[in-house]
Design brief:
about 170 residues, mainly alpha
Length: about 170
């Protein structure tokens, strides 16, 4: 679903605004749950399979943020946390963006015949991956507050107005 589409303008956005401002106006927690569910639905509209990848990214990076905060004073554990954070996030991003290219180049230069994986690129994967990494790095550097509630991290990563803008 794109911002200038009729479905977004005349159905999705009005429903989200009415529910958020009229029906859930008194409970911040329910508003946040609703916004996260609406954002995941928005993403799933264009990428139904890859919404699970986004949810896994949210959970993984939330957990890494907790570790970065908890072990900030233990240098080797905090560095290991950041190494794992970067390796996993960049590894996933690299798989989806560069696996086909990498295998083609290996086959070309080494004269091999490794089967070339055809991996569809999830919409916005670079944006939400770097958004998630920035959260953990900000927690590590004390520029951001650790979020004990994964819902807050989920909204930071997946909130629909910023997701497609990225």
């Amino acid at each position: 679903m794109l911002f200038p589409s009729e479905v977004f303008i005349f159905v999705f956005l009005p429903v989200v605004l009415v529910v958020y401002y009229a029906l859930l106006r008194k409970t911040k927690a329910l508003k946040n749950v609703f916004l996260l569910l609406a954002s995941l639905f928005f993403y799933a509209w264009g990428e139904p399979v890859y919404v699970y990848l986004m949810m896994a990214s949210i959970v993984f990076n939330w957990f890494m943020g907790l570790l970065a905060d908890r072990f900030r004073e233990k240098k080797w554990i905090s560095v290991l946390t950041l190494v794992v954070l970067v390796a996993v996030n960049i590894g996933v991003l690299g798989w989806y963006k560069y696996s086909e290219f990498t295998v083609l180049q290996i086959n070309r230069f080494l004269h091999t015949s490794i089967p070339v994986p055809v991996v569809p690129l999830p919409i916005g994967i670079s944006f939400f991956t770097f958004q998630a990494m920035s959260y953990v790095i900000d927690v590590y550097r004390k520029r951001g507050k650790v979020q004990k509630n994964p819902l807050n991290v989920g909204l930071y990563i997946a909130l629909f107005p910023q997701l497609i803008a990225g």
